[in-house]
Write a structure and sequence with these properties.
- By secondary structure, the protein is of the alpha+beta class.
- The protein is built from 7 helices and 7 strands, in the order H-H-E-E-H-E-H-E-H-E-H-E-E-H.
- Strands 1, 2, 5, 6 and 7 form a 5-stranded antiparallel beta sheet that branches. The protein has a two-stranded parallel sheet with strand order 3-4.
- Helix 1 packs antiparallel against helix 7.
- The protein starts with 7 loop residues before the first helix and ends with a helix.
Length: 208
């Protein structure tokens, strides 16, 4: 999960806490959760309902965001007034991980009784955006991750909505683990940033 514009003042206050040592690691969520069980990390922030919950872990939902279907500014689907999953899966997809997009599309394709479309995995979000902008590939990304590109008309957010695109963002921790105050403050900081990003997107939609 990528959170932009984290509250820097609050973030610094957490990092400067007495005896504090803050290390942020970004990786595939399944690897982070496995590391959490090995006690490599104190907690993990990610999305729910993608993996079977590993034994020994607990989760607490922090906020909910929504994935959007992102396309290039000249994508052929812009010509359609009403979009369906049948329209979307006719085109290749590109995903920042091999899991979330596959999970959503696999659920949809089971409903449609059809094979999965071509999915290319690209670990770099910036490269992913460039590929979507220059090709007919589609991508699933949270709205806040492409707000700048959409405003600059380099990417286009297709007017397509489905309940399967909603996702809960949660903090995962080991069973019995008790956070100290600096870690609670950090989780609160991330929660506040996520909630504000979601509210900003809602305001953008109202104004548009």
């Amino acid at each position: 999960m990528q959170l932009q514009r984290v509250h820097v003042t609050n973030f610094r206050s957490v990092d400067d806490s007495e005896g504090g040592h803050l290390e942020v690691v970004e990786n595939a969520q399944v690897d982070l959760l496995t590391g959490l069980l090995r006690r490599d990390f104190d907690f993990v922030i990610g999305f729910t309902k993608v993996f079977d919950m590993l034994d020994g872990l607990r989760q607490r939902v922090l906020f909910r965001d929504t994935l959007r279907v992102i396309a290039g500014i000249n994508h052929p689907l812009r010509k359609l007034e009403t979009l369906t999953w049948g329209d979307l899966v006719k085109y290749p997809w590109i995903s920042p991980t091999s899991r979330r997009t596959h999970t959503v599309l696999d659920h949809i394709m089971q409903t449609l009784d059809a094979p999965l479309p071509q999915i290319t995995v690209c670990g770099s979000v910036s490269l992913l955006k460039s590929l979507v902008a220059e090709t007919e590939h589609l991508a699933l990304l949270p709205a806040h991750a492409v707000r700048g590109e959409v405003a600059e008309q380099r990417l286009y957010e297709l007017p397509f909505f489905d309940p399967t695109l909603n996702r809960d963002i949660a903090v995962f921790f080991r069973e019995g683990y008790v956070m100290d105050q600096p870690r609670k403050d950090l989780v609160a900081c991330v929660t506040q940033a996520g909630l504000e990003l979601c509210r900003e997107k809602e305001m953008d939609e109202v104004l548009s």
